[in-house]
Design goal:
Helix content: 25-40%
Number of domains: 2
Strand content: 15-25%
Number of helices: 9
Number of strands: 12
Largest sheet: 6 strands, parallel
Oligomer: single chain
Strand order of the largest sheet: 2-1-4-6-7-8
Distance between the termini: 20 Å
CATH class of the largest domain: Alpha Beta
Structural class: alpha/beta
Length: about 250
């Protein structure tokens, strides 16, 4: 089975390519959280994969929440792997998954990375659609390579973009300490489609008077609401309006 978390489609696309190669089930972490599904029974020799993005040099909080509640009824011969998508560096994300899986008596056999479009638009400018397309297309050979490596159960640490733990930990604390929803705003172009509320992985958005409202003080800062809004009516801070939107074009 392939557990994945994806706000804008990058990780879903990677998980999909791996599923095509291995024939194994894709399990959306967001759905597990919403449906309270945390117990799994992998068959003997089944691959157990995690496909996640890198947030602030670490793992997204919904992934940590899921890992903290996940229960795996294990057999023998499992091949465990982690595929990280990233824009600049993978920080300590592999190490974080290592620590959580140790509690289940698991070790990661294969650690892989794929550079993709970084969707943190408070910093990164995605207004150039051509540049985004080139980055997305450039990732395809690596995604195919990773799918083959997973299918063949290749072992090893192929992450050459990690950073020292002390630096990554310091930077990641900015994420854990700054997950406030106060910077979100809704522009008049909103048509009240409620897609943002339906897709929020932590149920931080509710529709009030036909407009989205953030009813929790903190969220995962995945920006899925911003990137998937059909009218680009959701903004976060001062820069996102100029920096554009991105959703992986290979998704549904």
């Amino acid at each position: 089975m392939i557990f994945y978390f994806s706000a804008t489609g990058n990780c879903r696309h990677v998980a999909g390519r791996i599923a095509e190669a291995t024939g194994e089930e894709m399990v959306p972490i967001t759905d597990c959280l919403k449906n309270q599904r945390f117990t799994f029974d992998p068959t003997a020799d089944e691959r157990i994969g995690f496909v996640t993005p890198t947030y602030f040099l670490g793992l997204p909080t919904p992934v940590l929440d899921f890992l903290g509640r996940m229960k795996l009824n294990l057999s023998d011969g499992h091949y465990v792997y982690h595929v990280l998508t990233f824009g600049t560096t993978t920080g300590k994300a592999h190490r974080m998954l290592d620590e959580h899986l140790e509690r289940h008596g698991l070790a990661i056999h294969g650690k892989f990375i794929v550079r993709m479009v970084d969707t943190w638009t408070p910093v990164f400018d995605l207004s150039d659609a051509g540049k985004n397309r080139k980055t997305t297309e450039a990732a395809e050979p690596r995604i195919r390579e990773v799918a083959v490596q997973v299918k063949e159960r290749i072992e090893g640490d192929f992450d050459d973009q990690k950073l020292p733990n002390f630096f990554s930990t310091a930077y990641y604390s900015r994420y854990k300490g700054g997950m406030s929803t106060r910077k979100f705003r809704v522009e008049d172009s909103c048509v009240g489609c409620s897609l943002c509320a339906k897709k929020c992985p932590v149920d931080a958005i509710e529709m009030k008077d036909g407009k989205p409202a953030w009813t929790k003080d903190r969220c995962a800062l995945c920006l899925g609401c911003l990137h998937r809004c059909p009218k680009f009516a959701i903004q976060y801070g001062r820069r996102t309006k100029a920096h554009g939107q991105f959703v992986n074009p290979n998704g549904k």
